[in-house]
Each structure stands twice: as structure tokens, then as C-alpha cells.
């Protein structure tokens, strides 16, 4: 047998062994685990102003971090500060531990230690405290389904569920309402 025939026979045996090995291992395909889905973008220490359909300020936002939700056009926020305008050009200040803004920027969900403070110079300064607050800036509306405490000079109200009309500073507590009135003493 010539060396060429021996080499050809060796290559043929190698090809057969490789084919047999691939056939036997065809069901043992190992799926590679994909890493975590990454955000499309991340902003750090930023400020932004969102405009409504008429080009007026819908809300302003400051936060140490904003992440685009993977696979969506929503935003996830870390310790955001929202400034929500009223009809007089003043702003409610709304803070929380975390926040979420939908794709159209017309729904905001705030969670954890939510504090909303009425605009400076309000005739009756008011502070709202809750764990959950949903804000609809195009309607100047804020709602909550959990316990909310509102305080203003001389008055503290606490109730479950709330609707706040931010433009005219009207707050409705919906159930289990308790009121404590402490008159101002001069």
C-alpha cells in the first residue's frame, strides 16, 4: 500500500469517526445562557423637562439615575424629584425612592417614601406622604390606593385612597379618613 492510499484511508476513518461522534452528541446541545438584558441607555445626575402636546411643560425631572426599561420605551428612576406645574406657573415637588414613567410620559408611578409638597407661596401649604403615588401630568391628577397622610398648618388628615387635583390643590381622601385639627395659637 502506498503512502497516499494510507493517508486517504486514515482521512476516511477520521471523517467517519467525526460523523459518528456528531450524530451521537446531537441531543446534547448545550444552550448558552444569555446574560442580563441591558438597558438601551442610562443617564446619571440629569435634569429634563417634558412637554405636553401643546408644547407646555408637563413636568420636570431630576434624578441620580434613569434607565430605559429593557425591551420597552419606559423609564425606571432612582430617587427622582418631579416638579409638577400648576396653573399659576408654580410647582409641586414630588420625591420618592423609585419611579417609573410610561412610554408616552403621561403616567408616572412613584414608590417608597413618597412626599409631595405644594408650591411655595401657596395660601395653604400642604404636604402629602404615602408609599405609592400615581401621577397623570396631562390631567394634573395624582392618585393612591394606599394610606395617605396630608398635613397643612393646624390640620392633619389620614385616609386610605386619594385623588389630588394638583392644578387647584384639591385633595380627596377616599376611605377610613381621620382628621386632627390643632388650631393655630398666637
Automatic annotation (TrEMBL):
<comment type="subunit">
    <text>Component of the lipopolysaccharide transport and assembly complex. Interacts with LptA and the LptBFG transporter complex.</text>
</comment>
<keyword id="KW-0812">Transmembrane</keyword>
<keyword id="KW-1003">Cell membrane</keyword>
<comment type="similarity">
    <text>Belongs to the LptC family.</text>
</comment>
<dbReference type="GO" id="GO:0017089">
    <property type="term" value="F:glycolipid transfer activity"/>
</dbReference>
<dbReference type="Pfam" id="PF06835">
    <property type="entry name" value="LptC"/>
</dbReference>
<dbReference type="GO" id="GO:0043165">
    <property type="term" value="P:Gram-negative-bacterium-type cell outer membrane assembly"/>
</dbReference>
<keyword id="KW-1133">Transmembrane helix</keyword>
<keyword id="KW-0997">Cell inner membrane</keyword>
<dbReference type="GO" id="GO:0030288">
    <property type="term" value="C:outer membrane-bounded periplasmic space"/>
</dbReference>
<dbReference type="GO" id="GO:0005886">
    <property type="term" value="C:plasma membrane"/>
</dbReference>
<keyword id="KW-0472">Membrane</keyword>
<dbReference type="InterPro" id="IPR010664">
    <property type="entry name" value="LipoPS_assembly_LptC-rel"/>
</dbReference>
<dbReference type="InterPro" id="IPR052363">
    <property type="entry name" value="LPS_export_LptC"/>
</dbReference>
<dbReference type="GO" id="GO:0015221">
    <property type="term" value="F:lipopolysaccharide transmembrane transporter activity"/>
</dbReference>
<dbReference type="InterPro" id="IPR026265">
    <property type="entry name" value="LptC"/>
</dbReference>
<protein>
    <recommendedName>
        <fullName>Lipopolysaccharide export system protein LptC</fullName>
    </recommendedName>
</protein>
<comment type="function">
    <text>Involved in the assembly of lipopolysaccharide (LPS). Required for the translocation of LPS from the inner membrane to the outer membrane. Facilitates the transfer of LPS from the inner membrane to the periplasmic protein LptA. Could be a docking site for LptA.</text>
</comment>
Amino acid at each position: 500500500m502506498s503512502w497516499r492510499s494510507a493517508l486517504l484511508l486514515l482521512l476516511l476513518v477520521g471523517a467517519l469517526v467525526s460523523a459518528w461522534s456528531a450524530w451521537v452528541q446531537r441531543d446534547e446541545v448545550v444552550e448558552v445562557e444569555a446574560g442580563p438584558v441591558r438597558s438601551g441607555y442610562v443617564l446619571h445626575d440629569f435634569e429634563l423637562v417634558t412637554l405636553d402636546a401643546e408644547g407646555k411643560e408637563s413636568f420636570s425631572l431630576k434624578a441620580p439615575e434613569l434607565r430605559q426599561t429593557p425591551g420597552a420605551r419606559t423609564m425606571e428612576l432612582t430617587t427622582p424629584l418631579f416638579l409638577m406645574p400648576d396653573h399659576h406657573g408654580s410647582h409641586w415637588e414630588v420625591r420618592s425612592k423609585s419611579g417609573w414613567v410610561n412610554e408616552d410620559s403621561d403616567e408616572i408611578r412613584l414608590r417608597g417614601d413618597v412626599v409631595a409638597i405644594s408650591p411655595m407661596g401657596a395660601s395653604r401649604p400642604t404636604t402629602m406622604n404615602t408609599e405609592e403615588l400615581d401621577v397623570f401630568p396631562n390631567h394634573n391628577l395624582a392618585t393612591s390606593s394606599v394610606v395617605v397622610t396630608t398635613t397643612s398648618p393646624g390640620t392633619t388628615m389620614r385616609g386610605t385612597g386619594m385623588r389630588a387635583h394638583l392644578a387647584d390643590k384639591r385633595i380627596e381622601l377616599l376611605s377610613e379618613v381621620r382628621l386632627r385639627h390643632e388650631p393655630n395659637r398666637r
